[in-house]
Design a protein that fits this description.
153 residues; 4-stranded antiparallel beta sheet; 3-stranded antiparallel beta sheet; 4 helices
Length: 153
């Protein structure tokens, strides 16, 4: 007959092993999708212009891992309008107008103003915070735009 302490040690070891397996399986899940940096040779997937001003750039990553890059949010919308494929997109990213850092499209705050001289004349830019978007609305006489409107959904 096994001693009580031996049984408890076996139970503890089994619980630890099961927890380790659960953590390992959780780690095998889908990795976080990250944006692809803009390179000097990159061209807009819609208009084929060079993407030279990152503060206006956007992109989406497909479920297959392909990155489609755009020089203007209007090009992103037009691409989706003409080619479709919303259901094949895993993530949207937009550049913050001030910092030029990538933001997740769904969490960005968008402002449209004729004073934003974007490459294709869409005049829409993104901000990382509601506060910055409100400041831009006042400064550039702009209006708020929803993400769904930006991507044409």
């Amino acid at each position: 007959m096994l001693k009580t302490t031996t049984v408890k040690n076996i139970e503890r070891a089994l619980k630890t092993a099961l927890l380790g397996c659960a953590l390992l399986l959780a780690a095998c899940g889908q990795a976080e999708i990250t944006p692809v940096e803009i390179n000097p040779e990159d061209m807009c997937s819609m208009c084929r212009m060079a993407i030279s001003e990152k503060q206006y750039a956007s992109e989406f990553i497909t479920k297959d891992g392909d990155a489609m890059k755009f020089d203007d949010l209007t090009c992103l919308r037009e691409y989706l309008k003409t080619k479709g494929g919303h259901d094949q997109i895993a993530a949207y990213f937009v550049a913050d107008y001030e910092t030029k850092k990538w933001l997740k499209g769904e969490s960005a705050h968008f402002v449209k103003s004729a004073e934003f001289a974007t490459p294709m004349g869409g005049n829409i830019v993104a901000f990382g915070s509601d506060e910055k978007a409100k400041e831009a609305m006042d400064k550039y006489k702009g209006e708020r735009i929803k993400f769904a409107d930006v991507i044409g959904k």
